[in-house]
Amino acid sequence: MARRRGITTVLTLVSLFLAACTATGGGSRVEITPIDELITRTWQAYSQRFIDPDGRVYRPLNDGDTVSEGQAYALLIASLLDDRQTFDKVMRWTRRHLSRYERTGDHLLAWHWEADKGVIDWNSASDADIDYALALLIASSRWHDQRYTQKARLILRDLLDLETEVVNGRRYLLPGNWRQANSRYVVNPSYLSPAHFRVFFICTGDSRWNDLIDSSYHLIDTVSQDFAGIAGVGLVPDWLRIAPDGTLTHAEGFSDRFGWDAIRTQWRLGMDALWFGEDRAGRYLATLSDFYAKEWERSGGRFFAEYSYDGRPTVEYEHVATYAMSLSALATSNSPILEGVLDKLRRRFNGTAQLFEETDDYYANSLALLGLIFHREARTPTIDLQQLDCR
Q1: Can 82 be counted among the known catalytic residues?
Q2: pLDDT reading at 31 higher than 80
Q3: Within a 10 A sphere around the Cβ of 335, how many other Cβ atoms?
Q4: pLDDT at residue number 183
Q5: What digits encode the pLDDT tens for the residues 82-103?
Q6: Which of the following is catalytic: 106, 127, 261, 377?
Q7: Is 69 a catalytic residue?
C-alpha cells in the first residue's frame, strides 16, 4: 500500500505539471492539460489513423499489414478506456480474420495478415494472446457481458496447452505455439506478464498460471543479473533460449539487445506492482530506474532507443516508445528524472496529428498510450483486477 500511495503522490504532481505545459508539433501549439486529456486525444487520433472502419489495426510503416499484437493492443486499450464501440468493432474483425479455430481447432490468433492475401503465417504469438484474453476479461467485468468471459476461457485453455512448456521443472510461457526441434526453447522476456497470469488464475483456478508467475520472475531476476557470463545492469535481452537444464543462453538469429521488445518488460511488471503490490516487481523496477537515472546524468538528460545487455548504447537516437515504457519503472520508484522524461514525451506530441512522433508509427503510439494509461490507473483507478467478476 505504501508503494501505491507513493505512485499516487507522484502522479498527482505529474498531472499538475502537464496542466501548466504546452506542446508544439507540426507548427501548432496545443495545451496539454491532465494526463486523462492527453490519453483521450491520442486515442481518438489513434483510432482514426491506425484502425480502419471494419476494426483492422494496420501498420503504415509495414506496408499496411496487420499483426495479432496490434489487434490485442487496441482491444486492451479500448477495454481500459471504456470504449465498447471500438472494442466490439476490433474484436469482430479479429475473430473473423485471425481466428485459428477452423484451421487448427484452437482459439489462439494467427499472428500475421496482409491485405489481398489474408493470413500469411498461422503461427500464434503469445503476447497477443494474453493481451487479447485480458482485454476480454476486463470488457466482461466493465460491461457485464459473460460472452467475453466465455471466449476468454477458451483462449486461456489453449494458451496453457499450446504456448507453455515445462523446462527443467519450471513452466514457461513460450512466444507462440511452435516448438524447437533441438529442445532449446526460445523465450521473449517482454511477453512474461505476472499480472495477467494472476488474473487468469483468479478466473480459472488453474495452478499452472501461478507456475508461470514464478518462472517469469525467476527468468527476469536471473537474466537481469547475469547472462552468458556477462554481469548485468538490470536490463534484459529481447530474446533468449532456455536449454534443457534451464540455462539461459543467446538465441541465434534473434536480438539480444535491450531493444524494441525488451523495453516492454517494465510495463508488464509495472502492472504487477501497481495492481497486486508484488515486491519482486518493485525490486526489478527500482534497479531499472537506477540504470535510467545514471544514463540520464551521463548522457545529458536523455537515454537512447536501444542498449546492449551490459548497458552500452547501440544507437544514437531517442525514441518515444523507450520513454513511454520507462514510466512504469520511474513512477514506481519515485525517480527524480520522471518529470524530465514526461517533458520528453510532451515535446514529442504532435499537436496537429494529435499523435506522438513518428505519427505513422503504430507501435510507438501504442506503447505511449499503454504507458500513459498505467499512470492514469495509478492516479485514478478505473478497474480493480483483483475483483474481476470472471468465475
Answers
A1: no
A2: no
A3: 23
A4: 59
A5: 999 999 999 999 999 999 999 9
A6: 127
A7: yes
Range 209-218, long-range pairs (CB < 8 A, 24+ positions): 209/160, 211/170, 211/171, 212/164, 212/171, 212/172, 212/173, 214/170, 215/170, 215/171, 215/172, 215/173, 216/173, 216/192, 217/280, 217/281, 218/170
In-domain check, residue 270? yes
**What pLDDT sits at residue 5?**
40
Strand order in the sheet with 118-121: 66-67, 112-114, 118-121
Set of cell numbers at residue 121: 503465417
Does 389 fall in a domain? no
Whether pLDDT at 29 is above 70: no
Is the C-alpha dihedral spanning 313, 250, 223, 199 positive or negative? positive
Residue 109 lies in a domain: yes
- Residue in 31, 37, 54, 69 annotated catalytic: 69
CATH label of the domain that carries residue 202: 1.50.10.10
How many structural domains are present in the chain? Answer: 1
Across all residues in the chain, what is the average pLDDT?
90
